[in-house]
Amino acid sequence: MEKDRYQNGLDKLMEYTLTDNKDISTHLKISDDLQDIAPDVGKYIIEFAYGEIYSRAGLTNKQRALVTISSLVTQGTEPQLELHINTGLTAGLTKEEVVESITHLIPYTGFPRVLNALSIAKKVFSMRDEEVSELKAH
Amino acid sequence: MEKDRYQNGLDKLMEYTLTDNKDISTHLKISDDLQDIAPDVGKYIIEFAYGEIYSRAGLTNKQRALVTISSLVTQGTEPQLELHINTGLTAGLTKEEVVESITHLIPYTGFPRVLNALSIAKKVFSMRDEEVSELKAH
Amino acid sequence: MEKDRYQNGLDKLMEYTLTDNKDISTHLKISDDLQDIAPDVGKYIIEFAYGEIYSRAGLTNKQRALVTISSLVTQGTEPQLELHINTGLTAGLTKEEVVESITHLIPYTGFPRVLNALSIAKKVFSMRDEEVSELKAH
Amino acid sequence: MEKDRYQNGLDKLMEYTLTDNKDISTHLKISDDLQDIAPDVGKYIIEFAYGEIYSRAGLTNKQRALVTISSLVTQGTEPQLELHINTGLTAGLTKEEVVESITHLIPYTGFPRVLNALSIAKKVFSMRDEEVSELKAH
Amino acid sequence: MEKDRYQNGLDKLMEYTLTDNKDISTHLKISDDLQDIAPDVGKYIIEFAYGEIYSRAGLTNKQRALVTISSLVTQGTEPQLELHINTGLTAGLTKEEVVESITHLIPYTGFPRVLNALSIAKKVFSMRDEEVSELKAH
Amino acid sequence: MEKDRYQNGLDKLMEYTLTDNKDISTHLKISDDLQDIAPDVGKYIIEFAYGEIYSRAGLTNKQRALVTISSLVTQGTEPQLELHINTGLTAGLTKEEVVESITHLIPYTGFPRVLNALSIAKKVFSMRDEEVSELKAH
């Protein structure tokens, strides 16, 4: 039933997020922002991308995050790269694995894409560190 | 010393190849083909790509193969994709992991790149099966 | 129910095909070719691409064909461009509209992508003319 | 005569603009901004892109706008996408057709390009609504 | 007058061709092949690309060939790359400059595009050598 | 020895910079910014890109700058384009040659990439003029 695919996708998306950081709200914020002009696109992300593709067997969440990040570095689609470095870390990738994956792409995409991706990774790392500091301060 | 970087790269490249299939000869064939017009490019592949980048710590050979394949699917550079699906399998990826990684890219690259990549994967799988059959027949 | 999405997609795909040409079999042939290594990808094309996206209101089939062709010319993914020029003609685009759309892209993609796309269009037109001739000869 | 091609292009460009919004000035602003370093580029846009390509028969202005937008979403060239969503609306596309065209590209470009394009569409829609409100307020 | 732009473009195109090789006929063959379905595209190549852009002052023919080849290597549009390596050699680039320009792109595009481009360069060099041999044999 | 490759790259990089402008510091700033998360990437830029590729014979520094700029315009990687227009000017390209090279790409990449690149060129020219003014004022 359709509802199950949506719920399925939402559950899967939750695995890539932490209750104590802003990933899930960022993902849902994208849907919210488009709610007025393109409400179905957010639904397709949950139902198709997370409910069908991410819910498949055969790769770990960490492997799916590696594949996603590698494609986004290659495309140079930066807002999505920021989001998926974040969800990748939540899915269990270490910062070192993220940096190594991007660095590994130098022979395949050249330096420009890699440098832009590393700047985004640095920004994501620093934002997550701040969140952790804030949480600890409470 | 320069010689060490080259030897280092060659050793690393060997990890991605089997003595009983044609990977290593394909890689070296690329260098051979370009030997007359661009001899240094084969050298850079060995020294820089394999001797420096692939020789870094922080990712397993399987993870490096996943990252490489994901980038090549996204770029649509098909001769290299064929080569790297082959080396990925040699590095330890299962056929299922190769197919899953390509399938996972549907939401990020769309269907056309994915379909073209799956056709190449199918071709590589079938060539490797034939080689195994031939070996067994001997 | 899941079955309905699949049937829905198949019905929509049929609108883009003629019983007397090879479009539908080409689309299904893609699924068939991948049946052994990636059976779900053919299912996603029917269920998601045709059953959800193509089944949306808001654009005519001809408009959807124009949008698809324009994206494929821009990407340079040629096997898919051949298929979608074919389905576009079946959906009601005239040959002139196909050629004009490709020509219109000169200022946006430059000449190389446009020239490659026109070569494919020429090939598709000539294959369809032959099919019509064969049908008339019977 | 050369002057006619320029005038022809300017007339065609006017069809894609309204006297009561900022499209025409945006187009001309691009030429103005480049007037000092590359004066001929603005001339080529008017003479070649509008005077020759857009002035061809065979597609309606709305169809040309659809083709243009589809290519720019696929390329991810965002400043131009903003401009051409604007001119597309002026040429007669509805907001729904713009959103549907972008949404239709999910299976061909993946979600990242589509999400970035929808954000731009949302921004353009809201800017045009404000202009209309301002006009009504007078 | 329009005729002058066309003649101007044809004259410029001639500078990139030799009477004793097949460049000019290849360029004109493209136009001939598209004569039936898109006759104006060949005209735009002559009038706009050669008659206006290539006819500008400020760069030598060799520099224009370098810029063109670098863009085509980056795009991976291979049929055009073959043509423009040919015209680049006719315009005065040496084989070494062609190979060096492609090799120089490794840090900017990665190895895959560079390797595919070098294969094409090798093919073009060998075809031109054969033509020279044939001419000498007469 | 490794140290020599690094020194070699640094010397070559110096040729593309002036003591009285900010190029060298921009290049080194990139390495500095990534020092904490990816220290080796800056090293690869110096050792491999400048120490090996840029240090090759066969092209002048001006030609290498032309090739680099043409690739970056085609890719649309804007932060790097800004940097390399700057180093290209230092390497001896005139502003006119930079503008002409970008303009020459209209038939190969279309107008969008060219317009975005010209905006960046304009910004770089104006920043360099200001630096010269500031220097003269002292």
TrEMBL record, chains A, B, C, D, E, F:
Gene Ontology molecular function: any one: peroxiredoxin activity
Occurrences of domain Carboxymuconolactone decarboxylase-like (ranges): 39-122
Pfam family, any one: CMD
InterPro entries the record matches: 4CMD/NDH-1_regulator, AhpD-like, CMD-like
Domain of life: Bacteria
Membrane spanning stretches: none
Name under which the protein is recorded: 4-carboxymuconolactone decarboxylase
